[in-house]
Every structure is written in structure tokens, then in C-alpha cells.
Amino acid sequence: MKKKQLTSFDDLPLIMTVEDLAPILGVGKGTVYELVRCGRIKSLRIGTQIRILKQELIQFLESSTPQVS
Predict the structure, then answer these.
(1) pTM exceeds cut of 0.85
(2) Is 54 exposed, middle or buried (0-12, 13-18, 19+ CB in 10 A)?
(3) 3-state SS of 33-64?
(4) From the CB of residue 32, how many other CB atoms can be counted at a distance below 10 Å?
């Protein structure tokens, strides 16, 4: 994915890699891998590669409850 300022869900690509998703969520790749591994973000595996669909990211964001530290 090209580095571009995202301002809405419409700006997201239909399919993202873990590397694409990490800066969108503002977390590291390890955190994204963990969210995928535990099933909080649904993903597709193509061989050894992980792909996250835009609709799954939106569903994750809409269903996540904010956590206050």
C-alpha cells in the first residue's frame, strides 16, 4: 500500500497486509499478528502470507470497546 494520509474507511484498500495495517492502527506488526492469531481480526491465509480484508478491519474497529489505561 502506498503511504498516503487516510481520512476515511473509503481510503483503505480492499485487502491489506500486516505491514499495511500496523500504521493504520498505530501499533507494531507484532500486535497485529497477535490480533490475527487470537482471532480478534479475521484474516485470510494465502500460503504463508496473511491478508486482512477491509470489511474485517471495519468490523474489528466497530466491535472493539475502548480500553482506558
Answers:
(1) no
(2) middle
(3) HHHHHCCCCCCEEECCEEEEEHHHHHHHHHHC
(4) 24
Q: Which residue has the cell 494520509?
A: 5
pLDDT in tens, the chain (69 residues): 456 677 778 889 999 999 999 999 999 999 999 999 999 999 999 999 999 999 999 999 999 766 655
**How many residues would you count in the chain?**
69
Provide the CA 49 distance to its chain's centre, in angstroms: 14
User: Could you tell me the sign of the dihedral formed by the alpha carbons of 56, 59, 61, 66, in that order?
Assistant: negative
**Grid coordinates given for 14:** 480492499
CA-derived radius of gyration, the chain: 12
